[in-house]
Specification:
11 helices; single chain
C-alpha cells in the first residue's frame, strides 16, 4: 500500500509545485474563458431568449456555466502537456523504471491535473452569486464537487491522449479536434432545444453536455424552473461518473500498454 500511495503523492506534489512556479498558466487558463464570456455574452445578450423559462435569463447568465466548464477544459489540456514534457526531459523514463506500479504513475499525474483544473474552475464559480442571484453556499459546494468529477474525466482523457503523443504540436491538434467541439456541442453556447436534429443528437451523446447541465443545475440549487430541456441532476452526475471512470481506466491502460510495447521494441533491438 505504501509503495502505491507515496509515488502518487510525490507526483501530485510535483504537478502542484510546477504550477505554482508558472503562474502565467493560471492567467491564461482563467482569463481566456472570462474574455469569451464577456465578449460573446454581451454580443448575444439582446438576441437570446430561452424558451419556457420562468423569469428573465439573459445570455450572460446562460453562458456562465459553460464558461466555468471551459476553464476546467483548458486547464486539463494545458496541464496534460506536462506528460509530453516529462518524457522529453527524461523524467518519465526514470519513473517507469522505478519499482512502482503503473497505476501509481497514472493516478499521480491524473489526480494532480484534476486538482489544478478544479481549483482554477472554482475561482470563477466563487463569482457566481454576482451573476446568478439564486446561488447559495450549498449550491457552491455542490458545483465545486461537480467540477471535480468533470475535471477527473477530462484530465484522464487528456493524459491518455498525451501519453501516446511525441510532440506538443500533435497534442494540441488532437485536443482542438476533439475537446473544443465537445465543449461547443455541450449546451454551453446554445441549448439543444434550439438546435437542428443532428446537432441535438450529437449533444445528447456528448458526455460534456451532462457536465454543463450538472453545473448549471447545481448553481441554481437544483430548482426545476431553471432546467428547461435538461436531464435531472442525478442522471447528469451518473453519466459524468461513468465518463470519469471510463477515461480513468483508459489512462491506466495506456500506461501499462505503452510500457509493454516499449519493452518489446527494446527486446527486438537487443
Amino acid at each position: 500500500m505504501t509503495n502505491n500511495i507515496l509515488p502518487v503523492i510525490a507526483l501530485i506534489r510535483r504537478e502542484l509545485l510546477r504550477f505554482v512556479r508558472e503562474r502565467s498558466r493560471m492567467v491564461g487558463v482563467v482569463a481566456s474563458p472570462i474574455l469569451f464570456w464577456i465578449v460573446i455574452g454581451s454580443g448575444l445578450n439582446r438576441s437570446f431568449q430561452l424558451e419556457g423559462s420562468a423569469g428573465e435569463i439573459n445570455y450572460l447568465e446562460y453562458f456562465f456555466p459553460g464558461s466555468v466548464v471551459l476553464i476546467v477544459l483548458f486547464a486539463a489540456i494545458f496541464s496534460s502537456i506536462s506528460v509530453i514534457e516529462d518524457r522529453k526531459e527524461g523524467f518519465m523514463q526514470s519513473v517507469l523504471v522505478a519499482p512502482i506500479s503503473r497505476f501509481s504513475i497514472a493516478a499521480g499525474k491524473v489526480i494532480g491535473i484534476t486538482i489544478l483544473a478544479s481549483v482554477q474552475g472554482t475561482l470563477l464559480v466563487l463569482a457566481s452569486p454576482l451573476i446568478i442571484p439564486e446561488t447559495t453556499v450549498g449550491s457552491l459546494i455542490l458545483t465545486v464537487a461537480t467540477l471535480f468529477v468533470i475535471a477527473l474525466g477530462l484530465s484522464s482523457l487528456g493524459f491518455a491522449l498525451a501519453w501516446s503523443m511525441s510532440s506538443t504540436q500533435g497534442f494540441h491538434a488532437i485536443m482542438n479536434l476533439l475537446l473544443i467541439p465537445m465543449w461547443m456541442l455541450s449546451g454551453a453556447l446554445f441549448p439543444a432545444s434550439g438546435a437542428s436534429t443532428w446537432v441535438a443528437t450529437i449533444m445528447q451523446w456528448n458526455p460534456l453536455t451532462y457536465g454543463v447541465a450538472a453545473v448549471r443545475e447545481s448553481l441554481y440549487g437544483l430548482r426545476p424552473q431553471h432546467l428547461q430541456g435538461l436531464e435531472g441532476f442525478g442522471t447528469s452526475l451518473l453519466i459524468l461518473l461513468l465518463f470519469a471512470a471510463g477515461t480513468s481506466a483508459a489512462a491506466v491502460w495506456r500506461v501499462a500498454h505503452r510500457e509493454r510495447g516499449t519493452s518489446i521494441v527494446k527486446g527486438r533491438r537487443e
